[in-house]
Amino acid sequence: MAGRKIFSFELEGLGSILNRLDELEKEIDQRLDETLTRLALKVIADAKRLAPIDEGDLEAALIVGEVKRTIAGIYIDIGTSPEVDDYAVVQHEGFRKTKAGKLVVLTPGEKTRSKPAHGGYMPGKKYLENALKMNEKLILEELSKLLEG
């Protein structure tokens, strides 16, 4: 084994590099939470302007949840408070079924018809879906900027 050279090296500062990576991860998580929450609040604000108002207080029941993390990813819930879910779904879809199975199509009442169009959509059915469509480009741009930067 004579004549064989042994190489060795040391990594200095590896601990500080790992600490900085942890800090960056926390900063990105915080910015992602803030961005998702801001975007969800924008969608809900638009949904409130598009929600029908003939009965009940659907606008007040539209809510934004908290940012949640799973193994699959990060998400935020938007929709209605649980106590009005059944009513909200009927209003969103624009129809309901009677106990006999008959389909009843809802038509916007006077109060809903008096609301102005918003973002190219008329208030009434599909209020949440239309609010999401209105903001789809903004959502994709904001999240792309965040994840690229």
TrEMBL record:
Quote the Pfam families the UniProt record gives. HK97-gp10_like
Superkingdom of this entry's organism? Bacteria
InterPro entries, alphabetically?
HK97-gp10_tail (IPR010064)
Q: What is this protein called?
A: HK97 gp10 family phage protein
